[in-house]
Amino acid sequence: MANTRVVVSAQELAAIEDAIECVLAPYVTRDEAARPGDARGVRLLRYVLPEGADEQTGRTS
Known about the structure:
Layout: H1 10-29, H2 53-57
């Protein structure tokens, strides 16, 4: 499990998503015969959740 906070622009976020897709692509598209014998199906969940203004500056109400 991972929970990583970053401060990025919309363009940077799009680049991050593209990079993640590039990392995953070889595993998604590989032939079943090329999978290791101990491979298991897993589901990777990614959520992009914008923070409120207070969360971005670290201020509390």
